[in-house]
Write a sequence for this structure.
């Protein structure tokens, strides 16, 4: 029996959702409402009609104001642009609510630092929705990576999502692949190869960006990212090289329906124990710092 399928012996964590866009509808609302570890209590969005459409299938309330949402829940999930998350998540932390945060934490490093400081000051639980990290295959890859002794790695994450469609949103089009795809790639390289201590970037994040990462171990990894190229299907691939045989991770082949129950169970467990896990706001701050380095700021 996996941890996600064990009986849940606590009351469900009451979660309010901020946002009613495509990701909120497709993932957050559905996953949080599925339980039994969590209960979707209310939805708040700047477009009230979208909030109603998101809440209705699950019988959740529609909050008229963000402050009203806070009154309905003990934890808040965010599915909004990073600039909005950075502002509202600070207010939720100050109100004593646990946080389920999207990546990146914010649009810039100072805003991400303010959010981390607010979480620390309030002493609340935080957790990042780094989707692939909750998948069993990813965890098997990261465990296997520890014995490879890799001295180098190549990573590639390519998609055409920014060329059109519901995920070609203003903040993604303005800031490009580094802020949207970068957290996934940098997190996995950092976890597989050891801490990244320096990053250099080249290219235009809105078109194609290349990263060279130096790890504390002395290993070097490189990553190519774009959200603006035509590919038959998305590519997410990491290759580790060293004295042992090559180790390959194919993230594009994952079925993320296997990730969501694990994420939900771990978030609820963290809230009930009052202890954040590895993928908390400080993990997000580390990734934000690496992205700032890549941009030379």
């Amino acid at each position: 029996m996996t941890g996600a399928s064990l009986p849940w012996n606590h009351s469900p964590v009451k979660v309010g959702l901020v946002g009613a866009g495509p990701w909120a509808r497709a993932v957050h609302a559905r996953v949080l409402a599925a339980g039994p570890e969590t209960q979707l209590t209310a939805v708040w969005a700047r477009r009230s009609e979208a909030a109603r459409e998101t809440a209705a299938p699950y019988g959740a309330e529609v909050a008229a104001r963000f402050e009203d949402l806070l009154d309905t829940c003990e934890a808040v999930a965010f599915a909004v642009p990073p600039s909005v998350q950075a502002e509202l998540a600070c207010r939720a932390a100050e109100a004593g609510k646990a946080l389920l945060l999207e990546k990146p934490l914010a649009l810039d490093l100072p805003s991400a630092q303010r959010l981390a400081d607010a979480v620390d000051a309030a002493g609340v639980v935080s957790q990042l929705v780094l989707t692939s990290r909750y998948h069993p295959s990813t965890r098997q890859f990261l465990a296997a990576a520890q014995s490879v002794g890799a001295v180098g790695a190549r990573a590639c994450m390519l998609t055409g999502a920014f060329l059109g469609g519901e995920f070609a949103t203003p903040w993604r089009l303005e800031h490009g692949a580094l802020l949207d795809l970068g957290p996934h790639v940098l997190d996995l390289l950092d976890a597989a190869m050891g801490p990244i201590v320096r990053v250099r970037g080249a290219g235009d994040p809105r078109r194609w960006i290349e990263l060279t990462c130096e790890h504390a171990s002395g290993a070097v990894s490189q990553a190519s990212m774009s959200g603006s190229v035509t590919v038959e299907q998305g590519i997410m691939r990491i290759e580790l090289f060293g004295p042992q045989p090559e180790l390959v991770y194919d993230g594009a082949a994952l079925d993320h329906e296997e990730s969501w129950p694990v994420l939900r169970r771990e978030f609820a467990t963290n809230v009930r124990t009052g202890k954040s896990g590895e993928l908390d706001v400080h993990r997000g701050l580390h990734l934000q710092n690496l992205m700032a380095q890549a941009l030379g700021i």
